[in-house]
Design brief:
CATH class: Alpha Beta
Number of strands: 8
Helix content: 25-40%
CATH superfamily: Gcn5-related N-acetyltransferase (GNAT)
Shape: globular
CATH topology: Aminopeptidase
């Protein structure tokens, strides 16, 4: 499996939001975009509105997850860092769930976060019943740091994340 992330520009995000693929867009897998993708793309497009043209983008946004060149999901930041922390969210089409695609996509996003100014930690949250999402975050090296009535909260300090995208001292494949 060859996995990559593609940062959407404003025009692409607007098409994901509208669930209308353009001939120039990357191929979409069946089931893409998910509801979470349309919401994330809408928030990103709104953030870009007035800041960039249709082809513009910023790194704290919405990325398409590509498996062998086909869009199989989305991942991204819920905006720029606040006090050094960015929040992530992700979702994959049913056909790729359970195969490690989301975990590897999160690792790629953490690789990216290491190089972004102002980011020291990455956090994510999930419902206690969403065991698959919990496994994605722990598989990517995030640790459970708290809970509230609605969510479990996970976090990773990027100082512990190497430039190669793997935690210091943790061999690849050992998670």
């Amino acid at each position: 499996m060859a996995l990559a992330l593609h940062l959407c520009n404003r025009g692409e995000a607007e098409r994901v939001m509208a669930q209308r693929r353009d001939a120039a867009d990357l191929q979409w897998a069946d089931g893409y975009p998910l509801d979470g993708d349309t919401r994330a793309a809408a928030a990103y497009a709104s953030h870009l509105s007035g800041r960039t043209g249709k082809g513009g983008s910023i790194p704290f946004g919405y990325y398409q997850v590509l498996e062998d060149g086909v869009v199989v999901g989305g991942i991204g930041f819920h905006g720029p860092p606040k006090e050094g922390v960015v929040e992530v969210g992700y979702g994959m089409v049913p056909a790729v769930r359970g195969r490690g695609v989301a975990t590897e996509a999160l690792r790629l996003l953490l690789d990216l976060a290491v190089g972004l100014d102002g980011v020291r930690r990455v956090m994510g949250r999930t419902e206690e019943t969403n065991v698959a999402s919990q496994r994605v975050m722990t598989g990517a090296g995030m640790q459970l740091v708290g809970r509230d009535p609605d969510f479990l909260h996970y976090e990773i300090d990027l100082g512990e994340w190497s430039a190669s995208g793997r935690q210091e001292g943790v061999p690849p494949g050992s998670r």
